[in-house]
Amino acid sequence: MTLLSILGMISSAIFSGTSLLYTTLGETIHQRSGIVNLGLEGVMLISASSGFAVTAITGNPYLGVFIAMMAGGIMNMILGFLVVTRRANQLASGLALMFFGFGLSAIIGKPYVGTRINALPRLNLPGLSSLPRLYSSLFKFDFLIILVIPAAFFVWWLLFRTRWGLGLRAVGESADTAFASGRSPFLIRYQALFLGGMLTGLGAAHLSIAYTINWTEYMTGGRGFIAVALVIFSKWHPLRAILGALLFSGAVAFQLLLQSSGVQISPFLLDTIPYILTLLVLIVWGGARRHAAPASLGRIYQGVE
Amino acid sequence: MSQNDKNMLKWNQIFQKILDSAARYLMMGFVVLFLFGIILLITGKDPIQSYKDILTSTLGSQYGFSEVIVTMTPMLITALAVALPTRIGLINIGGEGQLYMGALLATWGALTFETLPVWALVPLMGLLGIIGGALWAFIPGILKSLGLVNETIATLLLNLVAPSIVAYFVFGFWHSPMDTNKTPNFVDAAQLPTFFNSRIDLSFFIALVLLAIFWYLMKYTRWGLEMRAIGGNPQAAKRNGLPINKYWVIVLCIGGAIAGLAGAAQVSGFYGVLLVNFSRSLGYMGFLISWLSFGDPIGIFITSFVVSVIITGGNMLQLTIGIPYAVINILLALTLFVVLAKPTFLKRITI
Prior knowledge:
By secondary structure, chain A is mainly alpha-helical. Chain A has twelve helices and no strands. Chain A has a single domain (3-120, 134-291), classed as ABC transporter involved in vitamin B12 uptake, BtuC (Orthogonal Bundle), CATH 1.10.3470. Chain A has helices at 3-32, 40-58, 61-85, 90-109, 133-136, 143-160, 163-173, 175-180, 185-211, 223-233, 238-260, 267-285. The longest helix of chain A has 30 residues, at 3-32. In chain A, 52% of the residues are buried. By secondary structure, chain B is mainly α. Chain B folds into two domains: 17-45 and 325-351, no CATH class; 55-322, ABC transporter involved in vitamin B12 uptake, BtuC (Orthogonal Bundle). Chain B contains 14 helices and no strands. In chain B, helix 2 (47-58) crosses helix 12 (297-321). The relative contact order of chain B is 0.18. Classes of the chains: A mainly alpha, B mainly alpha. Chains A and B meet through helix 3, helix 4, helix 10 and helix 12 of A and helix 6, helix 11 and helix 13 of B.
């Protein structure tokens, strides 16, 4: 095992973890406002396909990223209409959104299967340019990777250091109380869904425009569900979400590391580690109140008639 | 008012109700067809012709109709796996994982005891499927009753683990010499008997029996009454001396067992082989169907039927006019959206 292979693994972990962290941050915002979005998988697919399509048509990856972001926000508006305005069951609505995403993304992406696009440019980090090319090319990151940690801090600031975030968390704990103190749970939940959808869209854009640089059906491969698990693992906290995303992408890197060093362990069993770890963490917390989910997560706010 | 008049009034009301809900579903159907028509037009297909094709290819031919039944069979079972725990207030979103574990154990049985005759091997596989699903549901059940982890989260997490375990066994040990992503075809004795010269197999009748048992249990037994009591108000049920923790574990395990049976039926009947990632969200579909029909057995049957017509029709459409299969997911999702949104215009048009 050489230094190069280890660095290569770290690099691939960073690339695969980025889309996951954006999506997890988005879902953190949803869930803090009291909405479980199980449709992330579908939202990601639509963002990834529309971003890819726009990049292929215009040749401009930045426009693609922007469209993917907007697509994510708009997709979540469907969920918002169902669960906020029409007061439908959140889990069922999320799953319906997932199926919608499976279908619509296939239509959007079909003409672009196998198309070559201008990927999001990878930037030279200052200081690394003196390294041999083989090494420095591993750490040429696009701007979405560079911005992902700041994005986590931004979400943290938004949720815990602004009045808007206070209102959002209040709605997630008790929508009635928040309403009584003069906030609109409807509006706040729509805003949370739109913002979260945009972050999800960023994650999906990174997947299709910067990381894999192609479009295939179902290319997200369960990342939407992984993000839901990571939100729980990180106790609904954006900064701990960084840790969660590292854990998952670390497991992927670890897998590659083991394979290259000749240790025979099934990658499929390693795949399960993040979920089992999440479950174990939940067991260790043991349902104590301070580790608990937002109190009205999944509940329907009936509003005032 | 005489008794006769009262009866008349009652029947009038029932008739009115049926008329109302018929009008409601008809309107919903139109909304869905309209929305999907727009999408078909955008992709350059003739919507009217497509709808005609869907209907004639499913309900219009014997083969198509049998395919609808084949498609709906696993949905009936996985929906039941969700509906039963719902009665007691448990949200089992883990049908997907339980299905995989049932399929896994059933496959182990099929590969290990392949010399057994069909009357022994098929029931054994069913039993193993039940055990696999029940064990997988036991984990969230026990965690819930100990007050450690919410069952929604636990079942969701376990859904993500199960397909990897199946993949581990198939790629690692069981794969056929030709294909690494599936086992060799099962011996004939490990395959469910089929009927009517079609792919309809025994599991369809098992599903119907299960639905009937579920309906009877819920309506006429003490057990069903106690479950509804716990689902309605767990605290009150506890004070009345019902062992709610025990109920939680047992009912979730039974739910898992049912989903596991669906998994066994899929590998033993539909495929005759264990494929990696075979389920295509059947467990999630069961959750949706159970929720849309409020856990009512007849509702489950009707909803599964409608969903299966859409899916089967879509499959045929893919062959005839060449739209991608995934488009059917859009039609399905639009249907779900409209049902979930409970449109208000329906209230206005009903008399």
